[in-house]
TrEMBL record:
InterPro entries: NA-bd_OB-fold, RADX
Protein name: RADX protein
Pfam families reported in the protein's UniProt record: RADX (PF17659)
Gene: Radx_1
Organism, as annotated: Heliornis fulica
GO molecular function, one term: single-stranded DNA binding
Lineage: Eukaryota, Metazoa, Chordata, Craniata, Vertebrata
Length: 306
């Protein structure tokens, strides 16, 4: 069928009602957002953002309401979609922006693709990877993997991807979303090592829309976390308090989820796998810890500072 490009869409969207189909690859995926309120009667008040790209650049795509439970889990990073009968709207200015793995990629930030059950009813097709043709010119998913030895030189809020062997995982903890609100975020602390430093990655992992993965992070798991943000306490000794926290677009993968993921081709991931083959499993097992209370960042050593 006759296709359109994201770049053409940005130039012509105001003068059109019907759009030609789009062929895009998903590069980033946000957590699922529930926006229901007691006074509003909506069946499925869900929303999820994706960043999709073709040969011309990258644009946000929003999945609305009942399409979320139907499609959210099938739409993975790297999935190729054929979209028909979608809507185009001016983009929402306050949403979070993932950091693209390819810094050269053009970003179309003024509009977003809207997928709804009606007005118009969107038709979504997933193209299997083996049927994707090189001549379609779809970009590959690119990552920003770092090693533990590189982390100490990175600035606050830097966006990166990490892979490591889990040596510690804490219990699930809760944090209020608002000071006096009823809603909580759920998170847990984890440590992961990659052989490039004596220090582990310290990871603050919030429960995103992957409860099955969040609950099964165990010591000795190969853990991949994407779109993590560097957090440094610049007031204290910056090197001692550096850790990574999840962002709205973070994806977490554990042993059993890695097969077929785009990051398996990344050089740093391959280097990590080579390192794990040199390790003695029994020796590493002795150093692992699970559960318990983990106060981090640590309180100061003397009470006056505290």
């Amino acid at each position: 069928s006759k296709l359109t490009f994201l770049g053409q869409l940005e130039m012509t969207w105001k003068n059109r009602v019907h759009f030609h189909p789009l062929l895009v690859r998903i590069l980033h995926k946000s957590r699922l957002r529930y926006y229901g309120k007691p006074e509003k009667k909506m069946d499925m008040p869900y929303q999820a953002y994706f960043e999709v790209a073709d040969g011309s650049g990258m644009m946000s795509m929003v999945l609305w309401n009942s399409l979320c439970p139907e499609w959210y889990n099938s739409m993975k990073v790297g999935t190729v979609l054929l979209l028909e009968q979608y809507a185009v709207k001016a983009s929402y200015p306050f949403k979070t922006q993932p950091t693209p793995g390819d810094s050269q990629m053009k970003r179309f930030a003024t509009i977003e693709i809207s997928l709804n059950v009606r007005d118009p009813p969107t038709k979504i097709s997933i193209i299997p990877e083996e049927m994707v043709k090189p001549e379609w010119g779809l970009p590959e998913v690119k990552y920003r993997f770092i090693t533990r030895s590189e982390l100490d030189d990175l600035p606050n809020n830097y966006s990166c991807d990490v892979i490591g062997l889990v040596t510690f995982v804490g219990r699930a903890e809760r944090q209020r979303k608002k000071e006096h609100g009823e809603d909580f975020w759920l998170y847990r602390w984890a440590h992961a090592i990659d052989g490039t430093s004596d220090q582990p990655f310290i990871l603050q992992l919030y429960a995103t829309s992957q409860p099955d993965v969040f609950e099964h992070i165990h010591p000795m798991t190969y853990l991949v976390c994407t779109q993590m943000r560097v957090v440094r306490d610049l007031t204290e000794d910056p090197s001692s308090t550096v850790y990574l926290t999840t962002s709205n677009e973070s994806q977490i993968f554990i042993t059993g989820c890695h097969k077929g993921q785009p990051y398996t081709k990344d050089t740093k991931v391959k280097n990590f796998i080579q390192w794990t083959k040199t390790q003695n499993e029994a020796n590493q097992m002795k150093k692992t810890v699970i559960g318990g209370y983990y106060p981090f960042p640590r309180p100061p050593n003397n009470f006056l500072k505290y």
